Amino acid sequence: MPAAYGFTAYGGPEMQRFLELPEPVPGPGELLVEVYAAGVNPVDWKVRAGMHRAFLRLDLPAVLGREVAGVVVRLGDGVDAFAVGDQVFGASARGCGGYARFALLTASQTAPKPAEISWTDAAVLPVAVGTAYDGIEQLAPKAGESLLILGIGGGVGVAAAQLARDAGASVFGTAAAAKREFVESLGATTIAYDSAAFGERLRTALPHGVDTILDLVGGHALRSASSAIHSGCRILTVADPETAARFGARPLKRESSTRTLTELARRVAAGRLDPQVRGVFRFEDAEAALREVESGHPRGKVALDLRGDR
Fold it and tell me: Which of 97, 215, 231, 258 has an alpha carbon 20 to 30 Å from 90's alpha carbon atom?
């Protein structure tokens, strides 16, 4: 089987292919893992499309993927929190490299995988679920407060809804009407964002305004939600800082630490958080997995399972 799946030049899906590459060597603060599962995220196709070139410098061809779960096979200098043979999950080192038989992880962004968690559930925690955790930590919605998630139907929104509900907040979210049943299964109230009636729906659902907003969309969605924003509303954004600044929003800051991942794993193991992995693909079907994510329509998370030939 090929060693990795990535892209040879910036552009569309036609630049993707399986690659025969040497096993990577861990540098200081890194560890090499045999990959058992890898998360598939929208950021992956955005990297391929060249949308992150300004701050993510890659030598091409490059391997896709920013989060994996697997077994440690080699340690870089200075790594003493892990040992060969440990089951772990974490963020791909150097910004990508997860769609592969072997991948590098950053030790400070890696955590032990509890036995109670599946490989695919663990693999999808670092990026979207980690972003959701950081966002809810920074917004700190209290019991009885309301949270409006703009773009609740994606990976970040789905996790954020569960985390906020666990804190006792009342969760509302914008999503297409087709995702209503899925979103409401998370304990959130859906406000359909697919017609001119959105503003009226928002005022009906939140007649006194909203306490906190997690903006995952930006632009028109945030402007359309302005009727729910009052002077004490706390807003975080990951999408459109210029528009968000007009409403007093702050940018969401990522921690991406072992502490965060350990806490997420604890919650999944305890049944308090479901990563909602709805699509699991074999490694040889990596193209199809990324195509599903790039379409913008998956319900829940998508992962690659690399254990099939072991």
Answer: 215
Residues ≥6 apart with Cβ < 8 Å to 160: 132, 135, 136, 147, 149, 152, 214
Structure tokens at 289: 């997995």
Phi then psi dihedrals of residue 108, to 5 deg? -75, -5
pTM as predicted: 0.91
- Look at residue 100 and give its three-state secondary structure: strand
What's the start-to-end Cα distance of the chain, in Å?
Answer: 11
SS (H, E, C) 268-299: HHCCCCCCCEEEEEEHHHHHHHHHHHHCCCCC
For residue 228, which of 209, 247, 201, 256 has the smallest C-alpha distance? 209
* CA dihedral for 269, 273, 275, 276, sign (positive or negative): positive
List, in sequence order, every residue forming a beta bridge with 149; answer none if it has no partner.
173, 214
What is the C-alpha to C-alpha distance for residues 231 and 3, in angstroms, rounded to an integer? 54
pLDDT digits (tens, 9 = 90+) for 156-209: 999 999 999 999 999 998 887 778 888 888 889 888 776 667 777 888 888 888
